[in-house]
Amino acid sequence: MLNLRRISLVGGTLIVCMATGAAAKSNPDACKATTSHAFDACKSGAHSDKSLASGKCDNVPDPVTRKACVQQAASDLKDALQSCSDARDFRKAACTRLGRDPYSPVIDPANFVATIDNPFMTLTPGTTFIYEGQTAEGLEHNEVFVTHNTKVIDGVTCVEVLDTVKINNDLTEQTLDWFAQDTDGNVWYFGENSEELAGSLVVSLSGSFQGGVDGAAPGIVMKAHPAVGDFYRQEFDLDNAEDLAEVLSLNESATVAAGSFDHCLETEETEALDPGALEHKFYAAGTGNVLVLDLVSGERLELVQVTH
Protein backbone atom coordinates (compact mmCIF):
# COMPACT_ATOMS: atom_id res chain seq x y z
CA MET A 1 0.00 0.00 0.00
CA LEU A 2 1.25 3.49 -0.88
CA ASN A 3 1.62 6.05 1.88
CA LEU A 4 1.36 9.71 0.85
CA ARG A 5 4.28 11.57 2.39
CA ARG A 6 4.32 15.08 0.95
CA ILE A 7 2.77 17.23 -1.82
CA SER A 8 4.51 20.36 -3.06
CA LEU A 9 4.68 22.69 -6.04
CA VAL A 10 8.07 23.23 -7.70
CA GLY A 11 8.12 25.60 -10.66
CA GLY A 12 4.43 25.08 -11.25
CA THR A 13 4.85 21.28 -11.32
CA LEU A 14 3.03 19.17 -8.82
CA ILE A 15 5.47 16.88 -6.99
CA VAL A 16 3.98 14.00 -5.09
CA CYS A 17 6.42 12.24 -2.75
CA MET A 18 5.31 8.81 -1.70
CA ALA A 19 6.92 5.82 -0.07
CA THR A 20 5.85 2.22 -0.24
CA GLY A 21 5.60 0.05 2.82
CA ALA A 22 8.64 -1.85 1.55
CA ALA A 23 10.69 1.33 1.20
CA ALA A 24 9.74 2.35 4.71
CA LYS A 25 11.25 -0.90 5.92
CA SER A 26 14.63 -0.34 4.32
CA ASN A 27 17.55 -2.54 5.24
CA PRO A 28 15.57 -5.35 6.91
CA ASP A 29 17.34 -7.50 9.47
CA ALA A 30 17.28 -10.86 7.68
CA CYS A 31 19.10 -12.71 10.46
CA LYS A 32 16.61 -11.50 13.07
CA ALA A 33 13.64 -12.32 10.84
CA THR A 34 14.96 -15.81 10.16
CA THR A 35 15.38 -16.35 13.89
CA SER A 36 11.81 -15.23 14.57
CA HIS A 37 10.28 -17.48 11.92
CA ALA A 38 12.35 -20.48 13.02
CA PHE A 39 11.09 -19.91 16.59
CA ASP A 40 7.46 -19.78 15.41
CA ALA A 41 7.93 -22.99 13.41
CA CYS A 42 9.54 -24.70 16.39
CA LYS A 43 6.66 -23.77 18.71
CA SER A 44 4.08 -24.91 16.17
CA GLY A 45 5.90 -28.22 15.80
CA ALA A 46 6.03 -28.70 19.56
CA HIS A 47 2.29 -28.11 19.91
CA SER A 48 1.59 -30.38 16.94
CA ASP A 49 3.62 -33.19 18.53
CA LYS A 50 1.75 -32.67 21.80
CA SER A 51 -1.62 -32.90 20.04
CA LEU A 52 -0.62 -36.16 18.35
CA ALA A 53 0.68 -37.59 21.64
CA SER A 54 -2.57 -36.59 23.37
CA GLY A 55 -4.56 -38.30 20.65
CA LYS A 56 -2.66 -41.51 21.32
CA CYS A 57 -3.34 -41.08 25.03
CA ASP A 58 -7.08 -40.88 24.30
CA ASN A 59 -6.88 -44.40 22.94
CA VAL A 60 -5.44 -45.88 26.15
CA PRO A 61 -8.21 -47.88 27.94
CA ASP A 62 -6.81 -47.81 31.48
CA PRO A 63 -7.61 -44.47 33.23
CA VAL A 64 -4.44 -44.43 35.33
CA THR A 65 -2.20 -45.19 32.37
CA ARG A 66 -4.10 -42.68 30.25
CA LYS A 67 -3.58 -39.95 32.86
CA ALA A 68 0.15 -40.70 33.03
CA CYS A 69 0.27 -40.55 29.25
CA VAL A 70 -1.38 -37.11 29.20
CA GLN A 71 0.99 -35.83 31.87
CA GLN A 72 3.98 -37.08 29.90
CA ALA A 73 2.71 -35.35 26.76
CA ALA A 74 2.41 -32.08 28.70
CA SER A 75 5.90 -32.50 30.15
CA ASP A 76 7.35 -33.22 26.70
CA LEU A 77 5.70 -30.05 25.37
CA LYS A 78 7.27 -27.99 28.13
CA ASP A 79 10.71 -29.42 27.34
CA ALA A 80 10.23 -28.87 23.60
CA LEU A 81 9.19 -25.25 24.07
CA GLN A 82 12.25 -24.67 26.25
CA SER A 83 14.42 -26.10 23.46
CA CYS A 84 12.74 -23.70 21.03
CA SER A 85 13.59 -20.78 23.31
CA ASP A 86 17.18 -21.94 23.73
CA ALA A 87 17.63 -22.19 19.95
CA ARG A 88 16.09 -18.72 19.48
CA ASP A 89 18.44 -17.20 22.05
CA PHE A 90 21.42 -18.91 20.41
CA ARG A 91 20.49 -17.59 16.96
CA LYS A 92 19.91 -14.07 18.32
CA ALA A 93 23.36 -14.05 19.92
CA ALA A 94 24.91 -15.33 16.69
CA CYS A 95 23.13 -12.62 14.70
CA THR A 96 24.85 -9.91 16.74
CA ARG A 97 28.15 -11.21 15.36
CA LEU A 98 27.09 -12.36 11.90
CA GLY A 99 25.21 -9.19 11.00
CA ARG A 100 21.81 -8.32 9.53
CA ASP A 101 22.31 -9.40 5.92
CA PRO A 102 20.86 -12.60 4.45
CA TYR A 103 23.29 -15.52 4.41
CA SER A 104 23.60 -16.07 0.67
CA PRO A 105 27.20 -16.72 -0.43
CA VAL A 106 27.83 -16.22 -4.13
CA ILE A 107 29.06 -19.52 -5.56
CA ASP A 108 30.89 -19.26 -8.90
CA PRO A 109 32.29 -22.61 -10.08
CA ALA A 110 35.10 -20.72 -11.83
CA ASN A 111 36.38 -19.66 -8.41
CA PHE A 112 37.02 -23.23 -7.25
CA VAL A 113 39.99 -25.54 -7.84
CA ALA A 114 40.27 -29.31 -8.18
CA THR A 115 42.66 -29.93 -5.28
CA ILE A 116 42.06 -29.37 -1.57
CA ASP A 117 45.49 -28.53 -0.16
CA ASN A 118 44.74 -26.07 2.65
CA PRO A 119 47.53 -26.81 5.21
CA PHE A 120 45.04 -27.30 8.03
CA MET A 121 42.66 -29.41 5.94
CA THR A 122 44.34 -31.24 3.11
CA LEU A 123 42.00 -33.80 1.55
CA THR A 124 44.03 -36.03 -0.77
CA PRO A 125 42.05 -38.92 -2.31
CA GLY A 126 43.10 -42.25 -0.83
CA THR A 127 43.91 -40.83 2.62
CA THR A 128 42.26 -42.19 5.77
CA PHE A 129 42.26 -40.39 9.13
CA ILE A 130 41.59 -42.69 12.09
CA TYR A 131 40.37 -41.30 15.42
CA GLU A 132 39.50 -42.99 18.71
CA GLY A 133 38.20 -42.01 22.12
CA GLN A 134 36.26 -43.29 25.10
CA THR A 135 32.63 -42.18 25.38
CA ALA A 136 29.83 -42.89 27.83
CA GLU A 137 28.59 -45.57 25.39
CA GLY A 138 31.99 -47.20 24.92
CA LEU A 139 34.98 -46.96 22.57
CA GLU A 140 34.38 -44.69 19.60
CA HIS A 141 36.27 -45.53 16.41
CA ASN A 142 35.98 -42.90 13.68
CA GLU A 143 37.42 -43.28 10.18
CA VAL A 144 37.45 -40.40 7.69
CA PHE A 145 38.28 -41.69 4.20
CA VAL A 146 38.91 -39.25 1.34
CA THR A 147 37.46 -41.13 -1.61
CA HIS A 148 38.33 -40.79 -5.29
CA ASN A 149 34.70 -39.89 -5.98
CA THR A 150 33.40 -36.41 -6.73
CA LYS A 151 29.96 -34.83 -6.72
CA VAL A 152 28.82 -31.69 -8.51
CA ILE A 153 26.86 -29.41 -6.17
CA ASP A 154 25.72 -25.95 -7.18
CA GLY A 155 27.95 -26.29 -10.24
CA VAL A 156 31.07 -27.00 -8.15
CA THR A 157 32.92 -30.33 -8.32
CA CYS A 158 33.35 -31.47 -4.73
CA VAL A 159 35.58 -34.11 -3.16
CA GLU A 160 33.54 -36.86 -1.50
CA VAL A 161 34.60 -38.00 1.98
CA LEU A 162 33.22 -41.08 3.75
CA ASP A 163 32.97 -40.64 7.53
CA THR A 164 32.05 -43.70 9.62
CA VAL A 165 31.61 -44.00 13.38
CA LYS A 166 31.59 -47.24 15.36
CA ILE A 167 30.82 -47.60 19.07
CA ASN A 168 32.17 -50.84 20.51
CA ASN A 169 32.57 -52.02 16.92
CA ASP A 170 28.91 -51.39 16.04
CA LEU A 171 28.35 -48.98 13.12
CA THR A 172 26.28 -46.04 14.42
CA GLU A 173 26.90 -43.31 11.83
CA GLN A 174 27.77 -43.23 8.15
CA THR A 175 28.10 -39.95 6.32
CA LEU A 176 29.15 -38.77 2.89
CA ASP A 177 30.55 -35.22 3.11
CA TRP A 178 31.31 -32.95 0.16
CA PHE A 179 34.09 -30.35 0.18
CA ALA A 180 35.67 -27.96 -2.32
CA GLN A 181 38.42 -25.34 -2.12
CA ASP A 182 38.20 -21.90 -3.66
CA THR A 183 41.02 -20.07 -5.40
CA ASP A 184 41.86 -18.17 -2.20
CA GLY A 185 42.40 -21.42 -0.30
CA ASN A 186 39.19 -21.52 1.77
CA VAL A 187 37.68 -24.99 2.13
CA TRP A 188 33.91 -25.00 1.71
CA TYR A 189 31.44 -27.54 3.05
CA PHE A 190 28.79 -28.15 0.38
CA GLY A 191 26.67 -30.74 2.13
CA GLU A 192 26.30 -34.22 3.50
CA ASN A 193 24.25 -37.37 3.34
CA SER A 194 24.15 -38.40 6.99
CA GLU A 195 22.78 -41.72 8.24
CA GLU A 196 22.33 -42.68 11.88
CA LEU A 197 22.03 -46.40 12.40
CA ALA A 198 20.68 -48.73 15.06
CA GLY A 199 21.73 -52.28 14.36
CA SER A 200 21.70 -52.44 10.58
CA LEU A 201 18.77 -50.06 10.15
CA VAL A 202 18.93 -46.37 9.22
CA VAL A 203 16.93 -44.52 11.87
CA SER A 204 17.63 -40.91 10.90
CA LEU A 205 18.85 -38.76 8.03
CA SER A 206 18.90 -35.64 10.19
CA GLY A 207 21.44 -33.04 9.13
CA SER A 208 21.57 -34.11 5.48
CA PHE A 209 21.61 -31.21 3.02
CA GLN A 210 23.07 -29.95 -0.25
CA GLY A 211 24.06 -26.38 -0.99
CA GLY A 212 21.71 -24.68 -3.43
CA VAL A 213 18.82 -27.05 -2.68
CA ASP A 214 15.67 -25.83 -0.88
CA GLY A 215 17.30 -22.78 0.67
CA ALA A 216 20.43 -24.55 1.92
CA ALA A 217 23.82 -22.92 1.43
CA PRO A 218 27.42 -24.08 1.83
CA GLY A 219 29.72 -22.61 4.44
CA ILE A 220 33.45 -22.33 5.05
CA VAL A 221 34.78 -25.19 7.15
CA MET A 222 38.41 -24.04 7.05
CA LYS A 223 39.65 -20.56 6.21
CA ALA A 224 42.69 -19.93 4.05
CA HIS A 225 44.09 -17.44 6.54
CA PRO A 226 42.38 -18.01 9.91
CA ALA A 227 42.65 -15.19 12.43
CA VAL A 228 41.72 -15.15 16.08
CA GLY A 229 38.15 -13.90 16.45
CA ASP A 230 36.93 -15.12 13.05
CA PHE A 231 33.30 -16.22 13.45
CA TYR A 232 31.54 -17.88 10.54
CA ARG A 233 28.90 -20.31 9.32
CA GLN A 234 30.16 -23.75 8.33
CA GLU A 235 26.82 -24.71 6.82
CA PHE A 236 23.29 -23.36 6.60
CA ASP A 237 20.01 -25.19 6.22
CA LEU A 238 17.52 -23.61 8.60
CA ASP A 239 16.47 -25.93 11.43
CA ASN A 240 18.51 -28.77 9.95
CA ALA A 241 22.19 -27.81 9.64
CA GLU A 242 23.42 -24.66 11.38
CA ASP A 243 26.97 -25.22 12.62
CA LEU A 244 29.14 -22.21 13.49
CA ALA A 245 32.85 -21.90 14.21
CA GLU A 246 35.14 -19.37 15.86
CA VAL A 247 38.93 -19.21 15.74
CA LEU A 248 40.29 -19.18 19.30
CA SER A 249 44.05 -19.58 18.85
CA LEU A 250 46.79 -20.13 16.29
CA ASN A 251 49.45 -21.37 18.69
CA GLU A 252 48.12 -24.32 20.70
CA SER A 253 49.77 -27.65 21.41
CA ALA A 254 48.14 -31.09 21.30
CA THR A 255 49.49 -34.49 22.25
CA VAL A 256 47.54 -37.45 20.89
CA ALA A 257 48.17 -41.08 19.98
CA ALA A 258 49.54 -40.05 16.59
CA GLY A 259 52.13 -37.71 18.14
CA SER A 260 52.69 -34.24 19.55
CA PHE A 261 51.85 -31.14 17.54
CA ASP A 262 52.72 -27.48 18.11
CA HIS A 263 51.39 -24.23 16.64
CA CYS A 264 47.94 -25.75 16.23
CA LEU A 265 44.84 -23.88 15.14
CA GLU A 266 42.11 -24.14 17.78
CA THR A 267 38.46 -23.54 16.89
CA GLU A 268 35.24 -23.60 18.87
CA GLU A 269 32.19 -25.17 17.23
CA THR A 270 28.57 -24.63 18.25
CA GLU A 271 25.18 -25.29 16.66
CA ALA A 272 21.73 -23.74 16.84
CA LEU A 273 19.99 -27.12 16.92
CA ASP A 274 21.85 -28.10 20.10
CA PRO A 275 22.81 -24.85 21.86
CA GLY A 276 24.27 -26.77 24.80
CA ALA A 277 26.84 -28.53 22.63
CA LEU A 278 30.39 -27.15 22.68
CA GLU A 279 33.44 -28.60 20.94
CA HIS A 280 37.01 -27.43 20.55
CA LYS A 281 38.97 -28.75 17.59
CA PHE A 282 42.72 -28.65 17.08
CA TYR A 283 44.31 -28.63 13.62
CA ALA A 284 48.00 -29.12 12.85
CA ALA A 285 49.46 -27.71 9.64
CA GLY A 286 50.36 -30.52 7.26
CA THR A 287 48.20 -33.05 9.13
CA GLY A 288 44.74 -31.61 9.72
CA ASN A 289 42.38 -32.26 12.60
CA VAL A 290 44.27 -34.02 15.40
CA LEU A 291 41.99 -33.60 18.41
CA VAL A 292 38.33 -32.95 19.27
CA LEU A 293 37.39 -32.00 22.83
CA ASP A 294 33.77 -32.15 23.98
CA LEU A 295 33.66 -29.47 26.68
CA VAL A 296 30.28 -30.69 27.94
CA SER A 297 31.04 -34.39 28.48
CA GLY A 298 34.80 -34.07 28.83
CA GLU A 299 35.28 -36.70 26.12
CA ARG A 300 38.16 -36.46 23.66
CA LEU A 301 38.51 -37.94 20.18
CA GLU A 302 42.14 -38.02 19.07
CA LEU A 303 44.01 -38.85 15.90
CA VAL A 304 45.51 -42.32 16.05
CA GLN A 305 46.81 -42.83 12.53
CA VAL A 306 46.87 -41.42 9.02
CA THR A 307 47.15 -43.89 6.15
CA HIS A 308 47.64 -43.25 2.44
Distinctive features:
308 residues, alpha+beta, 16-stranded antiparallel sheet, 20 strands, 22% helix, disordered N terminus
Description:
The chain is α+β, with helices and mostly antiparallel strands and 308 residues long. Helix content is 22%, strand content 49%. The chain has three helices and 20 strands. The strands form three sheets. It has a 16-stranded antiparallel beta sheet that branches. A hairpin with a 4-residue loop joins strand 9 (170-182) and strand 10. Helix 2 (30-58) runs antiparallel to helix 3. The longest helix is centred in the first third of the chain and has 36 residues, at 63-98. It is globular, with a radius of gyration of 24 Å. The N and C termini lie far apart (64 Å). The model is unreliable at 1-24 (pLDDT under 50).
**Rounded mean pLDDT score:** 92
Order of helices and strands: EEHHHEEEEEEEEEEEEEEEEEE
Q: Give the strand content.
A: over 45%
What class do helices, strands and sheet pairing give? alpha+beta
Give the fraction of residues assigned to helices.
10-25%
The main β sheet shows up as:
16 strands, antiparallel
Low-confidence stretches: 1-24
Which radius of gyration do the C-alpha atoms yield? 24 Å
Shape: globular
Total E-strand runs? 20
- Count of DSSP-assigned helices: 3
State the distance separating the first and last CA atoms: 64 Å
